[in-house]
Design goal:
The complex is a heterotrimer. By secondary structure, chain A is α/β, with parallel strands linked by helices. Chain A has one domain (3-134): Response regulator (Rossmann fold, 3-Layer(aba) Sandwich). Chain A has helices at 15-27, 40-48, 76-85, 103-111, 124-141; strands at residues 8-11, 34-37, 64-67, 94-98, 116-119. Chain A has a 5-stranded parallel β-sheet. In chain A, α1 packs across α5 and α2 (40-48) runs parallel beside α3. Chain B is of the alpha/beta class. In chain B, strands 2-1-3-4-5 form a 5-stranded parallel β-sheet. Chain B starts with 5 loop residues before the first strand and ends in an 8-residue tail after the last helix. Chain C has 2 domains: 19-148, Rossmann fold (3-Layer(aba) Sandwich), CATH 3.40.50; 234-393, Histidine kinase-like ATPase, C-terminal domain (Heat Shock Protein 90, 2-Layer Sandwich), CATH 3.30.565.10. Chain C is built from 10 helices and 14 strands. A 5-stranded parallel β-sheet of chain C has the order 2-1-3-6-7, with helices on both faces. In chain C, a hairpin with a 5-residue loop joins β13 and β14 (375-382). Chain C is elongated, with a radius of gyration of 36 Å. The chains are: A alpha/beta, B alpha/beta, C alpha/beta. Chains in contact: A-B, B-C. The B-C interface holds B 13, 15, 19, 22, 95, 116, 118-121, 123 and C 178-179, 182-183, 185-187, 189-190, 215, 218.
């Protein structure tokens, strides 16, 4: 897959959830350009085109970031904050998808600029349905920003 | 147990507002829908001022861009600047497909951008998709005071 | 170079002596007299001014507006060459004839090179009238040519602006028409759905006609917009691999291809200098037509390209219903259709768009058809397109 043709960045360290998500997306033919990152650090490297992802270009952001909150190395809210506070990446749609039921997390999520917040259903079938709906909404109904206008060379995350 | 969802539609074209209501009547008959025709009234409603002193804060705002008095982007910026209003998800709903309108909307903090479809069937389908995602799947921010 | 803003009449060779305004640059009164006599003898009715130095010369240029300058080379403190400098500095295109004693070839040639029209020896003044006549004639022809060039440039400019206006109008009109049309289309459709069978029997029919009309108008306007966009394209030309473009087109059209059980073949296509989106549009329109206007058998479409001279010749051949030769040109005209809307859908704009794209790229498009045996659409694209003013390849 061309690193600059990624539609969805899926950030989740749970293999089960990743599998289920990919399966659901595949059923709507949306899984062709999904990149999976297992921790917050890799997610940031991917989005800021640094480290192992320095061959990516800031001019080709993903159309959607599906971000879990509980992540190793750098947690979801921190990733969200970095992405939403940097003009180069601020306009990338980030949807938090988490098993947390904490209202506090949800409030922080929206406060930090998450485009949306979803609670992962416990039930298998509901989970799949939710992913299908969200995939269709964010990749078909929604108009992603065409370009973030960033033309500065990729640099390390501040 | 979700109480009835509250939606604010900001659009100066009453025909479009009616279309949206008709569409939502089918898929979300319990939804409480309010509409305002311009940017000034939109902010008055959201801030519970003047004739909208009794207004209830919406859970979701559908915002057109071309509005009289104060444009959609203005309203968006004002909402995202205020501590109480900034959490409310805003969907830009516009006929404009111009890249710069889309980009600017995201820059100012729009949660998403949906183009108003040209034909009825797609319009209804789009409203349904919006309702299903935002009122069905997503967890909306807690209602403030 | 201006002729000091004076309209020149074509010099006549018969009839009353033509008038001539001459400016002599000469410090010797006798020499000046001889020159004037040579002119007046048979040829001209001369009104002359004599300047003896630079100041006088510059003044006389302004007040006398001469048609010809006759200058001696050797003047006190000044030379004929400097006369030429003054003319050049003031951007004046007045014939200057050197009337001088023997100068020597080298100097004479140098003067001519610096802009003098001719050189007449003082002891051969009989030549002077003919030399002047010739100089004036050349000047006249020069001004005619210049005028024609200016007219042409102005016409080209007007045409370009008029074209730009038209395209702008087409774009704005189609764009602004979409909004009210959207209302009509949506609500007639809503009426049709909501009140079907609930009003009298005519109501359903009337609403149906209105609704269909509105929907058709929407498509028409979208087509018009697409057509006008061809002209507004920025011309993002690049090296385009036509094989890759074909792959994308085939992927986009996969449902239609599958539905008609069509087979699309192609030979190896070249890489060309063109606008990728527009090339894609052309191929998509041609293949789409081939699918639409199919015969009884499943469509077989073959796409090829061959090099000929300075261009690539592409061909899209099908085994469909073909086109009668008398309509071969007509089909490329905007909104021209050969069949009733009920027989084959569409507005008749696809080929007009292809034609506009191809011709803007410097190529040609045409169709060869054996009547009912299918059609072959061919178009050419220049190999390396020169820079065009409108930025298109």
């Amino acid at each position: 897959m061309n690193p600059n043709e990624v539609d969805i960045l899926l950030v989740d360290d749970s293999q089960d959830d990743v599998d289920l998500t990919l399966h659901a997306l595949r059923s709507e033919n949306l899984a062709n350009h999904v990149f999976v990152a297992r921790d917050g650090e890799e997610a940031l490297d991917f989005l800021f085109c640094s480290g192992p992802h320095s061959q990516r270009s800031l001019e080709h952001p993903p159309k959607l970031v599906l971000l879990d909150l509980k992540l190793p190395k750098v947690d979801g809210l921190q990733v969200l904050q970095q992405v939403k506070s940097d003009p180069r990446t601020r306009t990338i749609p980030v949807v938090l998808m988490t098993s947390s039921r904490e209202e506090r997390d949800m409030a922080s999520g929206y406060d930090l600029g998450a485009n949306s917040y979803l609670q992962k259903p416990v039930e298998f079938d509901q989970f799949r349905k939710m992913v299908k709906l969200l995939g269709l909404y964010w990749l078909v109904t929604n108009q992603p920003p065409v370009t973030n206008g960033a033309s500065r060379p990729a640099g390390p995350v501040k | 147990m979700k109480s009835a969802r509250r939606l604010l539609i900001v659009d100066d074209n009453p025909a479009d507002v009616t279309l949206a209501r008709e569409a939502l009547e089918v898929c979300a008959p319990d939804c409480e829908i309010n509409s305002v025709p311009d940017g000034v009234e939109a902010l008055a409603f959201l801030n519970r001022r003047d004739k909208h002193a009794e207004a209830l804060r919406p859970d979701l705002v559908i915002l057109d861009l071309n509005l009289p008095k104060r444009g959609g982007l203005d309203v968006l910026a004002a909402m995202k600047a205020g501590p109480h209003l900034r959490r409310i998800p805003v969907i830009i709903f516009s006929t404009s497909q111009l890249g710069r309108d889309v980009a600017r909307s995201y820059e100012l903090g729009a949660n998403c951008y949906v183009c108003k479809p040209g034909n009825l069937t797609e319009f209804f389908a789009t409203m349904k998709a919006i309702e299903q995602f935002w009122f069905g799947s997503a967890t909306l921010p807690p209602r403030g005071e | 170079m201006s002729g000091v803003g004076i309209k020149l009449a074509a010099p006549s060779s018969v009839g009353p002596k033509p008038k001539l305004r001459a400016l002599l640059v000469e410090d010797n009164a006798l020499d000046a007299e001889l020159v004037l006599r040579a002119l007046r003898k048979d040829s001209f009715e001369v009104s002359a001014l004599i300047a003896q130095d630079e100041a006088g010369f510059v003044q006389a240029l302004r007040t006398h507006c001469p048609e010809v300058i006759l200058a001696d080379y050797n003047l006190p403190n000044w030379t004929g060459m400097e006369v030429l400098n003054v003319l050049r500095r003031q951007n004046l295109d007045i014939p200057m004839i050197l009337v001088s004693g023997a100068l020597g070839d080298v100097l004479a040639v140098e003067c001519i090179r610096q802009g003098a029209t001719d050189y007449v020896l003082k002891d051969a003044l009989a030549r002077l009238p003919e030399v002047i006549r010739r100089a004036l004639k050349e000047k006249y022809e020069r001004s005619l040519r210049h005028q024609a060039e200016e007219n042409l440039a102005k016409k080209v400019d007007e045409l370009a602006r008029s074209n730009a206006d038209l395209e702008q109008f087409a774009y704005v009109a189609s764009h602004d028409l979409q909004e009210p049309l959207r209302m009509v289309a949506a609500y007639t459709q809503l009426l049709s759905e909501r009140y079907k069978g609930k009003l009298d029997e005519n109501a359903d029919k009337f609403i149906g006609y209105a609704s269909e009309g509105a929907l058709r108008m929407q498509v028409l306007i979208q087509d018009l917009l697409a057509f006008s966009r061809v002209g507004r394209a920025n011309g993002n030309c690049a090296n385009v691999d036509c094989n890759a473009v074909m792959e994308e087109v085939l992927k986009t059209m996969a449902p239609a291809i599958q539905e008609s059980a069509a087979v699309v073949k192609r030979t190896n296509l070249p890489s060309i200098w063109a606008d990728r989106t527009q090339m894609s549009q052309v191929l998509q329109n041609l293949i789409g037509n081939a699918l639409k206007f199919r015969g009884k058998e499943p469509p077989v479409i073959s796409v090829q390209a061959e090099k000929a001279d300075q261009h690539w010749r592409f061909s899209v051949r099908d085994n469909g219903i073909g086109i009668a030769p008398e309509f071969a040109e007509n089909i490329f005209v905007v909104f021209q259709r050969l069949h009733a809307r009920t027989e084959y859908p569409g507005n008749g704009i696809g080929l007009a768009i292809c034609k506009k794209i191809i011709e803007r790229a410097g190529g040609k498009i045409w169709v060869e058809s054996e009547g009912s045996g299918g059609s072959t659409f061919k178009f050419t694209i220049p190999v390396q397109s020169p820079d065009r003013k409108d930025g298109m390849a």
